[in-house]
Every structure is written in structure tokens, then in C-alpha cells.
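Q: What would this chain look like folded?
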Amino acid sequence: MGQQSRNTHWPGPGFRFRHFGNRAKKVGLPAGSLIYVGEHPKDYKAVITVLEYDGSDFREQRIDHLQDVLPLKPAPVTTWINVDGVHDEAVLAEFGKAFNLHPLLLEDILNMDQRPKTEFMENHLYVILKMFDFDPHRQVLLPEQVSMVIGPNFLLTFEEEQGDEFDVIRERLRGHSQRLRSGGPGYLAYALIDTVVDRYFLAIEKIGQSLESLEDSLMADPPPNILKEVHHLKREMIFLRKYIWPVREVVSALQHADTELLTPETQVYLRDVYEHAVQVMDTLETYRDLLGGIQDLYLSVLSNRMNEIMKVLTVMSSVFIPLTFIVGVYGMNFKTMPELNLTWGYPAVWVLMLFLAWWMLRYFKRKRWI
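A: My prediction, written as C-alpha cells:
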């Protein structure tokens, strides 16, 4: 995922909630109102790219208006239309009219806080997923929402911003991948979903490297802000789990869907995606447990360090208590103290105090208290 072009969930260490603009404008409006709800306002024009292909031909172009490519070519030609930048409500309305998309579906595409799901319409399928990358330098997740509409001979995809996540699929199409070119829009949708799930492994792997770094620094010399970093990563993983957990339901629903838009061969491949989604969740849960262990280990190290400090202070206090008693006794201003007139009284007191200090330290060491 292109990190420079993605929104960040948090700008740096420390938790803060995501704020989605224009949410207040939707209050009281009828269902299906087309209002973009995103983290940041967008001031650029949406980019529409069109790929048309079959077993032998391939054509790729960028268009300014959807009417430039309508009507779509009939099967066996598959048309993939991708929109980078779903903030343009007029573009979404144009797609709704051209492909007879339900207003609630368009509303979901414009809402960047949607839970991953799949819906079966009369003539098409709707799938919504979250893509993730992880910036190890700032320790933040880079999320992006992608929506897919699968039709009889077309696939519509809507992304928040321009990126390179699906470039590998485009390269396969340009490279005459026979299976991809002949599989239709259902197989293309599978390939995109598989790419999204595979990118989860990359994000989680980067999180795992950050956890290993935290663990190493904890065992060596834990920095004072390590608990804050652990808390921040825990929040990030909760956020990640929120959007990865429903992916299994999405893939399972597609795998068992009774529809002509997904061939039995494609549903077999979706079974593999489901297994990958389960593996992602298992890895994520393992890292969550590891993060909890790191937090417990830090508190244990902190407690042990405090105990060591208290032990040293206790030993020093124990050694100086009898010495303080002796000095206090001979610090009293009584004229009748017999030791005050002795010639060797002063060095004798020093010898006594040094002997007591040596004996106590030797005793503590024999008891293995130091």
C-alpha cells in the first residue's frame, strides 16, 4: 500500500479516536442519502480507469465520465471499472444510475467506517473490505476501504485514494494470464479479495517485528515510555481485529452463495481465501497474547528493579543503624562519660564501627540477601 498517499489511523504514539467528517450532516436525512463520510476531506477529482479483456484481447484506458465507456461490451468480454477517490458524490450517483445500484449500496460505498460485509442484490453482489498497511516508523496502521460490485460481465471497485495495491492483478491481466482473463468478473473479484487478505499478512508481520523490537528493548534496558508504546500497539491491534474478524463471514458467504455470478471453480478458490483469513486471525490473536505478555513482563521487570533498589537501600540503612546509634551515644554532652578521657577512645570507636559494618555485610552475604 502506498504509505505516502494513505490516511493514518493515528499520527503518532498515543490513542485518539478517528473522526469522520460530514457524519453530522447525515443525521435526520432519509436512508440512501449520498454524503461522503471520511476521515479527511478530499479536494481532488476522482480517477476512473477501465480495463476490458477476454481470452485474447486486452484494453486499458482512463476516462473522465462514465458515459465514455457505456454501454458495456457483452460477455465474454469482462469490464473492470475502478474508481480512485469515492469522495465525489456526483460520480457515485452517475454509477448508481448507469448500473441500477441501490441507494443504500451507494451510501455504504461513501461511508468509510463500514464493517466488512457482503450483500446479494438481484443482479449483482456487493462486497466491502478494509485494506491495511503498517508504518513501523510511526507505529500506525494505514487503513483504506475498498468496495466491489460484481455484475454479470463487469466488476466495479471503489477505493478511497490512488494506490498500487491491485497493480499485481493488472500486471497479470496485461501478461495474458489465461485463468484470470477467462474467469469472468467473479474470478477477478476473488483475485482482488485474495490480494487484500494476503496484505493482512504483511501488515501483521510488520506489527510482529515491532513487538520483537519492544521485547528486545524490554530485556536490555526498557525505555521510560515503553508502556505507552505497548498501550498504543494494543489499541492498533484492537482496531485491526475489528475489521479483519468479519472477513471470514464475507468469504464464507461468497463461498456458499447460490448465484450465477460466482462459478463453482471460483468458489473452490474462495475456500483457500477463507483458510488464509482464519490464519490471519490466529496470528493476530497470538500477537495480542504476546503484547499482553510484554506488558506483564514490563511490569514484572519494573517491580524487580524497584525491589533491587529497595534491597540496596535496606542494606545501607541496616548497616548505618548501629553506627548511628554509637555516634548518637557519644554525641551526648555528658561530662562524666569515662570514654571521653581515654587516649585511644576515638580510634577505638572507629574500629568498632568499621568492624560492625564489615560483620553485617558479611552476615547479609552469607544469608544471600546481597
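Residues 1-17 have pLDDT under 50 and may be disordered.
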